[in-house]
Structure formats: structure tokens, C-alpha cells
Amino acid sequence: MIRILALIAMVWSTSASGDTLRLAVTTSFHNSGLSDVLLPAIKADTGLEVHLLVVGTGQALRLGQAGDVDAILVHSRTAEEAFVADGHATHRREIMYNDFVLIGPQDDPAAVQGTASAADAFARIATSESAFVSRGDESGTHKKEISLWQAASLDPQSFRGWYKPVGAGMGASLNTAAGLDAYILSDRASWLNFGNKATLAMLFSGDPALFNQYAYLPVNPDRHPHVNAKAVQTLEVWLTGNRAEQLVNGYEIGTEKPFHFNAQSPAVDP
Amino acid sequence: MNDIWTGLTSAFWLIVTADADLIEIALRSLQVSVSALLIAACVALPFGTWLAVRRFRFRRATIATMNALMGLPPVVVGLIVYMLLSRSGPFGVFGLLFTPTAMIIAQVIIITPLIASITHQAMRELWAEYHDLLISLNTSRSQRIRTLLWDGRRALLTATLAGFGRAIGEVGAIMIVGGNIDHATRVLTTAIALETGKGDFALALGLGFVLIALALLVNYLTHVLSRTEREGRW
Amino acid sequence: MTAPMTISLTDAKVVRRGKTILDVGAFTLDGAGLSIVLGPNGSGKTTLLKVLHGVARLSEGTLDWSVPEDAARRAQAYVFQSPVMLRRNVRQNLAYPLQLLKRPKAEVAVKVADWAARIGLADALDRPAPRLSGGEKQKLALGRALIRQPQVLFLDEPCANLDGRSTREIEALLREAHASGTRIIMSTHDLGQARRLATDVLFLLNGRIHEHGAAKEIFAAPKHAETRAFFQGDIVE
């Protein structure tokens, strides 16, 4: 009973306890379950309360641009570099990587298993016109998928019927793929953590083209003075420190460790 | 069927173990929706009643507009409120985006026309009944409104409960303006959307059953407290 | 006791949708009588009462009182043919007009108890008013009208839908009210009731007052053929 009353008091209070920071992250990062491990550790080590907005990369960038969040964590290098170049973020800091995997129906109608490259696998899907679910939301995953079609000299705009852009996050898109028994490109961690695999299986992985880098971008405090710059800095230090390295590298889903920490000391910069 | 059964058992365990997360988001659901309801009712009940007794030039247009606003898609309301409250929007300086306050604002906009419309409909009928008597007794306008509000309180209760139902089950607008942030703006409906998106149907269903139970409980308690079904009352 | 107020109409005309419903020119309601308005359906009886009470709009002419408007309106009461019951119990219905005047609670309680007894509903105080019988509703409406001790009381065919017993009870109450100084004007279809109660009689036809005079005289010797025909029970238009 006391617990309930305490919760009521906590929920009703309008001021947050401790320092808070708003971080926009991609659905693929959140769906992996890694954030559930990192956030409590961040709170314990730095006292920071991180408020996660789980959105697609596209919306994360828009939030950063508008100044509605303090920092973003996304995985779309070209978009990130443009973002920094436009002055919306002060810099980009690589944190960790995982890889993308090609998921599809167990019976693999397009025969992508064992193909030489990701582009090849995609080409086979297009030729066989097998059902394919696309994120369709300008996210990092979506942009990677487009790049793979282009590597196979195909234009996704010309696809009809079998190609299904859903405009949703990683988990929701996987749901749709499971429901339609379709192919889909997913990051490994989200796939491992996904609870509704139905008749889908991981059919292709390992191509270096499927490399997936996550980076941290602090929103530019010159543009948005209300940003909690100090907290953003603290979080960056933590995310590139030893504790983060331990947790990221050690994070397991089942028996696999999908994330690899690769933050480096910052280049000397004024 | 198996999924539904797992959902029910999920719900049962969440409640029985008084899961802290569940209690937190359930309380927040109530906080947001009840606050929105109180604000909306304070605006909608008198307005709907006033509209029933007052004759003025744009009355028909006002009624038509009010009824049309009931059909406002909640998600569009969410989008507009989002653009208004964003830092790059006109009211960004208040820093309300992604807070429960933003969610309350959005829900107030969504449910006020609904409550006002039902109130107006009921008050119009009651006014037609009382009209001759209240005019004859030389009542002032505020006396008329107060008499209608009191004698029509049962219909007003229905109106507010309709508003509450709309609010507690709403997900589109509050997802957009609240951001579904864990421990900050996550409520039952947005949590259900999240868990479904993760493929965790059992948990999603569990939360769903809790939401239904909560809505029914509020309705039931309200009826009991106002003794509307007791014999001899009207 | 001060003389009851006077209500006067001058050049009064009511036209609705192109049709003249009432055209009574000059008319004054004064003195201490109990006037009965007679006439066939559609002759304008209800309109005349409502116009005098000030709740129906005149198309031409004016309505005046011998006292300031506010006092005038507070000193009148109206009983409708179909009684309007507030969705409350008997006690609250009786109390309502006094509460509007912001009378103190103690005074209200005393008056409510008194009038409830007078109208014979003392043991029905907690019953919901809408559930009363037709006769009880009309008695309640009358009690509610009289509880403020109005100077002028209007009634529009109050006993039209009531049985003999209720009619007798209502008439007794009206006689009491009249005896204690209330000016009464009411319409009715019941010629017998007119004979029983009226001090003066008006006969309305097509919106005009055809006859107006002391009851005895009119009943003994009506001036116009239409009036005679009406009294005989013919259909008059």
C-alpha cells in the first residue's frame, strides 16, 4: 500500500528528481534490449535520468534539428555527417556497431541462403518477386536496405506488389513480416530479441556491407541554448568509457553477443 | 486462442504481484485522463448547457461546428499540438513537449467537443421541458443554467463518462506529444502499442485487460457513488 | 392590504405567421375578481393569458404594470395546462420558487410544509414529482404557484385532464386563494366550472374579446348570438 502511495506521489510530482536528459534513439537500438541494460547503469554511475524517445532515425534527426531533444543516437552515417555539417549537432561520436541480417521464411523461396553477397541475395528476392517488408521510414535500417538494392542495380521505386514498405519501427515491421511470411532486413540484436518469430529464420549474414555503426550526436547548444549541454557531455563520456564497453560487449541475447564497442578517444579538436 | 489465454494469465500475474511498472503506468494513465477530463468537463458542461438556453445569431453554426469537432481524428490533434509545442514551434519556450502536460492538453482538445455535444443534446431536451416554467418564474440566465445542470446531472454524468472512455483509450495523440518515454510519459495504451511492436503479445494483452478493467472500474464506481441506478431516483 | 397591481394592454395585437391570433386592443386586468376566459379552441385564450403574464411577445401594442417591472414579474404566477414538474421530489418542487428568491432555509421549510398540507400532499413530500398522478401534479403546480403569494395568478385550463375529485380540490384551493386577495384569471372549457367560480367572464372568439362583464349578467343574458350559441353547446367559429 505504501508502495502504491509512494508511486502516486512520484507520478503526480511535476519536477523530475536528479538531472534529466532527452535522448532520441532508433527503434532498432531500443528493440535490442540494450537500452534496458545501459540506462540503470547510467543512472547509477552518473545520476543522470535519461528519457528515451524511441523513434526512427529520420524523426530522431528532426527532433535534434528542432531542439526537442538534447542528443541523438542513430545509425546512418551519411545522414549524420550531413546533420553535423548543417550545424545541428556539434560532432558525431562512434560508440558501437552490430550487423544487419537478412530474415525470411524458413523455406526460403528466393534461395538467398548461401549466396555470395548481400546484393546478390537482394537480387534473388527481386527476381523471384518474393514478399519483402521494408521499413520505409527513412531510418538507418531503411537507408541500408536501399543501398543494398542499389548495389544490385535495382530501383526500389520500381517494385510492385511483392515489395511492402510499412513505415514502422523495427519491431512492428518484423511483426508484419512474420504475419506475411516475408523477407526483411533487420539488425541482428532486434531480431534476436524479437518475440514473435513465427515461421521466420535468419537466412543470410556476414557480408561486410551489412556493417551497422551507431553514433552519438549532441545537439548544438549554440542553436538551442536550453539543451542540457553538461548532461550531454557527461553521457558522452560515459558512453565511451570502460563501463559502457563492458556492458555493450557483454550484452547477450540467448547465446549471442550482437554488439561490439568501438568508441575511440576523441580526436584533438578545439 | 492460446495467445488470449496467455494474455489473461499475464494480466492476472501483473496485478496479483502488484508489478511496480504496471502500477506506475496505470496511475499515469489515470493522471493524464482524469486531469484532462476535469478540465474538459469544466469547459464543456457549462458551455453545452449555455448553448441550449441562449439564442444568438451564430447558434446553429456553433452547434454544427461543435458536433463536427467530435469527429476530429485524435492523431491529427496530436500532430498539431506537437507542432505547436515543439521547440521550433510557437509555444516551444514552455518546454511542454514530451511531458504528461502535453498529453493532457491533447486529450482536452479531443474530448471537450464530445462532452459538450452530449451535454447540449440532453440540456436541449430538458430546457424544452422546463422552458415555460422557468420563464414564468422570471429566472435569470445563470439560475436557468444552474437548474438545468443540477436536474440534468445524470445526462452530464453520461457525457463525462463518454469523455473519460475516449481519453483513457486514446493512443495516437498522446504517443506523438508524449513520446512514450519510459518512467515519464508511458501510459497503458502507449505501452500496449510498444509491447505489440516488440512482438510481446502476452504482455500487450495483459496490459490491455488491465486497461479494460480500469475503465470498467471507473465507470462502475461513478455509478455507485452517484447512486444513479437506485430505485426511486431519476 | 394594498390593492393588487394592475396589468394593462394597449393596442395589443399578436400576429404569427401572417395570421392574427389576438387582437384585444385595450384591456386591463385589475381589481380583486376571479375572471374566467371562455371560448372555442383556437380563439386565443392561451395567447391572451401568456401575453398578460408577459411571456408571449406582442406584435403590436404595449404591456404595462402599475408597479416596476421587476416587482410586477415577481408578483405573478402561472399554472400551465400540462403541469411542468421539475425532476425532483414534491418538497423540492415546492421549495424551488422560494429558493430563487433566496429565502432563508427555515422560512422555506415552514412554507413548504404548510402548502404541502394545504394541497393534500403532506405525506408525499419525498415522492418524485414526475411520478405523481395527473391530479396530484396539477395540485403541486398550483401549490408551487401560490407559495410565493402572488398578486396575480394565471391558469390555463387547469382541470382539463382531471377527474371530478381532483377538479373539486383544485377549485377549493382557487376559492381560498381568491378569498385571501389573489387576482385570478383562468381559461376553461368547463361551463359549469365557469359558473361555479367566476366573478366576471370574458368570451373570446377569433382573437377578439366578444363579451366581457359580470358573470351573473353574461350567463343570464349574453349580448351576442355567438356567445349564446356557445353556451348552448354549439360549435362556434
Characterization of the model:
The complex is a heterotrimer of chains A (270), B (234) and C (237). With 270 residues, chain A is α/β, with parallel strands linked by helices. The longest helix of chain A has 13 residues, at 34-46. The N and C termini of chain A lie far apart (55 Å). Chain A folds into two domains: 19-97 and 212-261, 3-Layer(aba) Sandwich (D-Maltodextrin-Binding Protein, domain 2), CATH 3.40.190; 100-210, Periplasmic binding protein-like II (D-Maltodextrin-Binding Protein, domain 2). Chain A has helices at residues 2-12, 27-31, 34-46, 57-66, 77-85, 118-128, 140-151, 170-180, 188-193, 229-239, 242-250, and strands spanning 19-26, 48-55, 71-74, 93-105, 132-134, 163-165, 183-187, 200-204, 211-218, 260-261. Chain A contains eleven helices and ten strands. With 234 residues, chain B is mainly alpha-helical. In chain B, 76% of the residues lie in helices and 0% in strands. Chain B has ten helices and no strands. Chain C has a domain at 7-81 and 152-232: 3-Layer(aba) Sandwich (Rossmann fold). Chain C has helices spanning 45-53, 69-74, 90-100, 105-118, 134-146, 164-179, 191-197, 215-220, 225-232; strands at 7-16, 19-29, 34-38, 60-65, 76-79, 152-156, 183-187, 200-205, 208-214. In chain C, the strands form two sheets. Chain C has a six-stranded mixed beta sheet with strand order 5-6-7-3-8-9, with helices on both faces. In chain C, α3 (90-100) runs parallel beside α5 (134-146) and α5 runs parallel beside α6. The longest helix of chain C has 16 residues, at 164-179. Chains in contact: A-B, B-C.
List the helices and strands and how they pair.
The complex is a heterotrimer of chains A (270), B (234) and C (237).
Chain A lengths: L1 H11 L6 E8 H5 L2 H13 L1 E8 L1 H10 L4 E4 L2 H9 L7 E13 L12 H11 L3 E3 L5 H12 L11 E3 L4 H11 L2 E5 H6 L6 E5 L6 E8 L10 H11 L2 H9 L9 E2 L9
Parallel strand pairs in A: 1-2, 1-3, 5-6, 5-7
Antiparallel strand pairs in A: 3-9, 4-7, 4-8, 4-9, 4-10
Helix pairs in contact in A: 3-11, 6-7
Chain B lengths: L1 H15 L3 H34 L5 H11 L4 H12 L14 H37 L4 H11 L1 H16 L3 H7 L9 H10 L3 H26 L8
Helix pairs in contact in B: 1-10, 2-5, 2-6, 2-7, 3-5, 4-5, 4-8, 5-6, 5-7, 5-8, 7-10, 9-10
Chain C lengths: L6 E10 L2 E11 L4 E5 L6 H9 L6 E6 L3 H6 L1 E4 L10 H11 L4 H14 L15 H13 L5 E5 L7 H16 L3 E5 L3 H7 L2 E6 L2 E7 H6 L4 H8 L5
Parallel strand pairs in C: 3-7, 3-8, 5-6, 6-7
Antiparallel strand pairs in C: 1-2, 1-4, 8-9
